[in-house]
Amino acid sequence: MSRLADYFVVVGYDHEKERGGTSSGKIIQRFPDTDWENCPFTQGIELFCQPVGWSLSSRREPPEFFVAVLTDIDADRHYCTCLTFSETIAITSTKGDDPDGDEPSGIHSSLMFAPKSLVLVSRLDYFDVFRNCLGIIYSTYVDKLDYQLESLVGNILGCIQVPPIGGPQVRFSIGAGDRQALQPPLSSSIPVSGNTVALLFKQLGIQNTLVLFCAALTDHKILFHSQSNSRLTDACRGLTVLFYPFKYSYVYIPILPAPLIEVLNTPTPFLAGIHSSLMDDTSDLLDVIVVDLDGGSIFIPECINLPMIPEPILTRTKTCLKMVLNPDLLMADHAFPAPSPKKPASLEQKDKEIRAIFIRMFAEVFAGYRTCLTLIRIHPEPFITFHKANFLGHKGMVEDDFLIRVLDAMAFGGFVAERGPPYRVCDIFDEVYAVLQEQLKEEVNDPEKVMSNIKDIAKQLHTNENPNPQPYVQKVPKPTEGAYSRIHQPPFPYLDWQHVQKIIDEGVHKQPVKPKFNNLRPPQLRIVPIGPTIGLVTDRLRIVDNNARRLEVLRNCVSFIFENKITDARIIFPAVLRALKSRVARLSLTQELSYHIRSNRAMLEHQQFDLVVKLLNCALQNDSSMDENGIAAAILPLATSFCRKLCTGVIQFAYTLVQEHPVWSNQQFWEASFYQDVQKQIKQLYLPQQREHMIMEKKRDSSYSPPQYRNEDELSVPSYRSSSTTPDAQRRLSGFKPRQIGALEIAAEQLRVWPTLSSEQQLEMMNNEESTVYSQAIHYSNRMVYMRVPLETTKPIKTLSPHDWESNSNSNITASLAESDSIDAESGFDETEISDVGATVVRFVTRFVDKVCNDSGVTQDHIKALHQMIPGVVAMHVETLEAVHRESKRLPPIQKPKILKPTLLSGEEVVMDGLRVYLLPDGREEGMGSNMGGPSLLPAEGAIFLTNYRIIFKGIPCDPLACEQVVVRYFPVSTLTKEKQIKLQYTAHIDQLPKDGIQLRSNIFQLMKIAFDEEVNPEDVDAFRKLSNKYRNPNNVFSTFAFSGQTMLQPTPLHKHKEKNASLKHFAKKTLIKTARKAGIKSKPSGNRKPNKYVLPTPPQQRRSLASPRSSTAGSDSESDRPVSELYDDLSIIDEADFPQSLTADPKFLEKLMTRPGYNDYKRLGFGDLMGGAQTLRTRTDLFRISTVNANYSVCRSYPALLVVPASVTDNSIRKFARTHRQSRFPVITWRHQRTKALLLRASGFHSRGLMGMLKPESGSGTSGGEPSSSLQQERYFSAIVGATPNSGRVYHPSCSDSLTSLDSLMMVEQPITLPDTPDMLRRAYKTGSVRSMVKPKTTFLKDIAFGRIGSIKEKSRMSGTASLDSSAAARINGALGEGNYGDRSHGDLINNSVQGLKRVALYVLGEKAQMKGIKMESFPKCDFIPVDFYEVRHVKASFKKLMRACVPSAPPTQENTFYKAVEECEWLLQIQNILQLAGATVDLLDVQGSSVMMCLEDGWDFTTQVVSVAQILLDPYYRTIEGFRALVEKEWLSFGHRFTHRSNQTAANQASGFAPLFLQFLDVVHQVMNQFPLSFEYNDFYLRFLAYHYVASRFRSFMLDNEYERMEAGWLCEERKTPKIDDTDVEGGFAYRHQHQPSLGMSVWDYIDKHHRKSSIFWNFYYSPHDQEMVLRPYSNMSNLRVWEYYLTEDLAHGPPYEIEVTQREIQLNEEEITETSGQMTRKVVNGCYDNIRIQQPDSFTWQLQEMYKTENDLGLLPQKWKTVWDKIERPNRDTIHRNASFNTQMVRSHGRSIHKRSTLEILVKGKMLGEAAKMFSQPHRFEKYTYTTPVYCDYCSQVLWGLLKTGMHCADCGYNCHEKCVNNVPKNCTKLKIVADSNSSSNVSRAGGSESGSVTGVTTVPSTSTGYEQMSSGSSEQQTFEGYLFKRGALLKGWKQRWFVLDSTKHQLRYYDAMEDSSCKGFIDLLDIVSIQPIKNVQGAPKRSDENAFFELKTVRRVYNFLAFDAKTAQEWIDRIHSFI
Q1: With contact defined as beta carbons under 8 Å apart, do 818 and 852 qualify?
Q2: Residue 1690 CB: number of other CB atoms within 10 A?
Q3: Quick one: pLDDT at residue 697?
Q4: What angle do CA 1667, 1673, 1674 make, to 5 degrees?
Q5: How far is Cα of residue 1208 from the mean position of the Cα atoms in its chain?
Q6: pTM of the full predicted structure?
Q7: Using CA atoms, how far apart are residues 1145 and 714, in angstroms rounded to an integer?
Q8: CA geometry: angle at 99 spanning 96 and 104, to 5°?
Q9: What separation in angstroms does the CA of 1297 have from each of 194, 1133, 1293, 1487, 1654?
Q10: Is 704 left (phi over 0), alpha (psi -120 to 50) or beta?
């Protein structure tokens, strides 16, 4: 029995505090005025009566009712039901006397309304009864009924007694003529909901409510807000009701008043609600989920990761909810739907059905939870824990975030504590849980059955709330309608407290307890049904991954081990290790091993012991530290049982070798294992009594039988078997186990009989249980000491911090405070005698003991005894392990393969001797056998060596079937690009693999994944990594193997000690130089330099690369941030003391240069020659000369000393205009066409306009001091180039011939040219007004062309062939150009005019668009400037990284990421295609057109070099020979300064720049050409691969340093020595110098190639036919014609890469010798593709014949002839010439290739012309308007900044051109706004609108190109499909407004924005599908000045809110309408 209400409170407005300036409420009266003894009065009720705040109102509000919830200090909830109404008060204001007037002061009064609340405070939640009682009191007051208010209040507080839960209905009256009834629910554990749950789903919907439910269940903070206080209470109540059977245990405040809003900043989870008017005060909450009840939305912050209910439970729950809430959904599509029921389901009925669905969901999620309950104590109170790991492991949800969070939540701990006991009162959840699994099986595909079961549960829930079926008609007086609005209503009277108190006292003392309440039967206790076991629940969901055969193999292996058949066990051991990946196999292993234990110990032989330990380690390695499968718990007794005898008295147990697993340091594991064993002991303690009880029950023939329990004991590993039976007998017995009695069943019976026992019996049981737990604590303390103390006690162990210990606790009960005294407890051992390891273990075990013993109720005396025991156990165990460790070291080591010594080159020395490692397989499947076939070569066991040149692995395969072969994998240490640590997984053929390893990746497409053997010390591993990094990153190139390898090096120590003074001197010098360079001071020669040192004069601007603007740095890879040369780097590789005396620039030096192949090529081309000993140069023609202007490298440090220039240009002129190009790399002639005499020139890009202006003189006349300016000298130079081109004087007559030898024929090819529209053209199409589309959908042809921004290709569509266009697209263009509308004609005019602009000129300059803006075309007659696309260096770097990952992946490819997809995504072939296309265009212009070509791209040393080199190979057959290719590389790559050191990261100073394989890309292009023209090259593919390998290997000096100047300074450029003679018999030693007077000069790769070329045909192409080849090659550049180079894919594991020729030959010789020694003769050999080199093992017929001839001559004793002599003597067969008339089809086939090639050329030219000339063709004056800029903008004319706050600028309304007012007059009239007027006569003429600007644009297309700007947007009809214009957009919070160009795209359904109208790069977009609303807004904070307040509008998406500002309100409204129309 309890009171209906505890307190009645009257709360009113506090007028006294109002005078002080604050508004609040106060308690006017409370009854009773003294606190109840068991229920103190809660303070602060007045805050909850007015949650928004107390305030006066000018109008009377109707009465309001709501319920607030207060929680006291004991976590008990008090329900405050408030009825609030308004009272009239008079507000009087006094006006002071007027000193100047005659009238007296007046008194003014007005009526205001103050709130007053009537409050009932109760611990019961009968809200309807409280509403009725307060309503009766208010009705009595307002209607002046004839009842005393004191009597009503007293009756409520003292006279009404509420029966307990499960009691009968109570009918009562409070004395106002009312009749009321109160019905308690049947069950106290089932919450009452009414209709709150259904109302919550109605407000939020299914998905939002499920999300909210998951958030609350996973302990997130949730905040409701609504305009209704009652809705807040109902929502919070409905959400907590859904928690059943859980209980919400965190902060619960359904209505939070405004003064307590700071409570929301609490770090703990909460469930709260506030009024919507208070939401502005919660804007700073970052981790709170906000729920809008009125709007039905949920806001989840980005920082919250919210997991959902696991599938398929979530889908099943959603389906059931839809069936309840939307019952007509299933019949919505029926043709003849059934009639709807006359009476739809009520809200309360839906409420119960929804609750039934959630009860079923909980039962399904936690199915089998009772089998994971662990019983620790039964008496005096049950203590039960939950085995989380076992539950998650059996359900397969170890990684499920939702379930893990729920199990860790406080609510689940309460769930276990409440529902864990097996003997208690059961409710609906227990019944549903017991039968749900069977119901789910029956409900499959039967929705009616599902709804039937749901309604059954809903009926029970309804009965629980309404047990009385007979309704009772209540009578509750209510106030008359409109009574609250009466004007003359008196205030609520002051009640007589004595009268009220008297009534309360009488009710409490006089009212007798009703007898029927005393006769209530208490709830019946019963045994809780166990439900399904966890195994049965999950077995049907899990696919069986083992079969009987695997388990049979496992059993046989264990049998072989214990039968000492070690050989048989080792044969099947790898299969067993693979099988142990399965959970079932691991459990079977522990079971099998347990059969072989005798008397708790199994003494094994050494080999047996090793195999058992490996099995245990493998089982532990495949399991996680959580031990979700119980493997570690099962291994615990095994590890302490298996042992071996080391010597007399020393026994080693298995636990000493299985300690390296994280599970042993996990407290959750130890707790769970301890509790499991305690449960077994408790079970054994009561099992005899249970069996006796069962026998007695059977004798009585009782009809009651205990339920069939199943628990985890049936799944656990069997305990040790008796020694009297054999393992086979034990297996047979284990298969027929009787039903075991579960621990919970025993506990239930003990709890049932507990009240019947005497106190002595009860005390005895409690002591027995406590002793059982104590004994297990002792046992586990010893076990933990065994597993935690390492065998090597000096080795540190990993342990958890105390914080981690507590956070990882497995118990649901908090630890006792007693554990804080555990460390300080008195012990019998002095802890100072214990080592650090021992102290760590003592702390670990002591904390564990404190935790489990305090939770399990162990006495403090026993805990203290444990504290004293643990240090002694640890000390004794440490002492024992010292002897074990000492004796274990004396065991004979396990036989391991012999470490094979690698073959070294001459001068190569081992820096770090071999470390024993495993070479693991990577993503390449060739060497693994299996699917690819062949032997399993990997993994391999061997050693890794570090030399001063290479990182080498050499070993043998681990597979016994392939262990006779040798595996070699190596790469030069200079090619190492990345080294990282990796986590290793199980690998076949390796018994015990470490978990950590390292991965080494090389840029020669090699990868090593290695795992160090256990015998390798970690210090050696660190030393290996540090030394590898040291040799990878030398201080300078002279420390590389190319130079240091000639002298024998001593092994480098790990720690190098430098002299202090030398280091400081070096540091000071570098610091001073760096500071001086930053200050702009020219460095002077050092005073201590040698007097004869040659000092090169360097202009000041050449000290660093010129800092060009961003627009001019395309392709330079941020070269302005990097030094131009290593000489200029602050960490330069060249020091002044490192060089010998430099060569002077005398004629002898120049003559030596001319003898080099690169310079000698100038003589072959006819550019000039040297006179004998003279300093002047004699030229063969007057047009050109070889200039010495750069002989001392003063003009351009990165150019060669001798340059070919026009003869008419003087050296002084060159010095002046060289500055107009970046890095002063002015145009020079590098090749001349022998027939057309056209020239090929190369240079860097032009400087931008701003930088050119700085270089110009100040005077406007272009002269300074009488000397011409740089620009004028540049124009003269270009004129000289034009004059030297023969076709410059020809008159060009356009024709339409179809000759394939003229450029005119390019317009006559079969497929018309399709050209893209540029972003600039399309942007100019914008006009305020209507923009109409001109191109119909069928003519949208631009999607077929990949076209990025000029100068830098960021993204290209992956097309199979860009050169040959789609014929259908071309046909569409023809159709578009042929139609008669104006737009089509204008587009055709643009193409036609661009093509007509391709008049034959003498010089084509191919450059970047950004550098060509400031060039005046009229200053360069007969020149044409073509912008071209090219890839920047940064794109090459990124592409190469992806290519390496694609060709040499670290893991096997998946179905989603295949090899071909990875190659496609790397875009490497696209870059190859781009080079081929541009080189092909150069070929056509030189060969067909006869025009000269100048390449002016980036800095002139990367992409320019690639294109120029490829073009010369295609044009000149000389470069397709070995001699010519060397000349080409030395001329174009070495002499012209490709930065090999910088791009290849050869030194430490260049590591940050990243590896950029430009030269490799060039070789790949040559390889592609060679594939298409195999007869045209003298060298073969191996020659290219050899160069690709050695240009980064740092073995040869040829590809060192960045330019010719640095090589000259290094002293090897003109070394005076001949090619050394090589001893032909020196095969093993390699190439060595005969001349040792200059050993530091290193070797040349060309000399090495010549040596081997003379010896063998290794570099020769036997298909080379110089007489049959074409002079000019025109390869296909289609993607289908390109191949992935075999260099990236092949590998030879027999000897490593074949490019170290001596190593390869020696390794092959060693293998052959070993085979011969083994078998006595060469047997038949199987050639494997990934192991052997096919070219060497199976040479072609020519090579084989030459080898056989060489062997025969040696056998005969003859002097062998050189192979080349023999080859030249061979007579080629005569071929008869067949003359036949070629058919027309044959001619078409022959011309097809050249046609496609020239098509690509024309596309490049026309595309550039359209971009460069379109604006000029349609130029017109700008239409400037004054404009105020709110953000920094740069003037497009003078490049100075514009700022709106200081000055205004001028803005072109048509094209967006920005400039200063002072610059308007100087701006060129080139507005690119297109104004096309129809011309009925001709469609090829473009008219410009003159005069007025009123003409509307009617034919401008809005079809963009496929660039990143207007992406593939097309118009679908004649109506306007897009809308665009400038808007101001505000960024994120506290950021300003910025002007952006916005495009509304209806095709892509996006709103994109750009920085400006001219920009082609999209900065971002807003998906129109995500838009929630768009509306105008006003009063925007931080709005720009002078902005129209009506021009703002707000766009809200699902992610964020955007604010926009238009120019005026009309434009803003137009934007709003447009966006509305699209969404």
Answers
A1: no
A2: 18
A3: 56
A4: 150
A5: 60
A6: 0.55
A7: 94
A8: 55
A9: 93, 59, 11, 18, 51
A10: beta
